[in-house]
Amino acid sequence: MVVTVSLVALFGLVLFFLLRSRTLGFGAAFIAAGFGFFLASTGAARPINQLAESVIQAVSQL
After folding, report:
1. What angle do CA 41, 47, 50 make, to 5 degrees?
2. Which distant-in-sequence residues (6+ apart) come within 8 Å of 31 by Cβ?
3. What pLDDT is recorded for position 4?
4. What digits encode the pLDDT tens for the residues 13-40?
5. How many other CB atoms are found less than 10 A from the CB of residue 29?
6. 31, 18 in Cβ contact below 8 A?
7. Beta carbons of 20 and 12 less than 8 angstroms apart
8. Distances in Å between the alpha carbon of 26 and those of 2, 4, 10, 34, 58?
9. Contact 47, 13 (CB under 8 A)
10. Cα of 52 vs its chain's centroid, Å
């Protein structure tokens, strides 16, 4: 769990700086995918899934 949280923090930080510098390419896609996979294995996965479901339901009802 400690390694996973560390990788989530690392990928999140790298993704933040890549997005901020507007660097888009294969590297940014890899970092974003890695961030998502590591984030999915933390305790934050359930609230993120619930938020995504709520947003999808709200948009479909518009």
Report:
1. 115
2. 11, 14, 15, 18
3. 54
4. 887 888 788 776 777 777 777 778 777 7
5. 11
6. yes
7. no
8. 27, 23, 18, 12, 32
9. no
10. 12
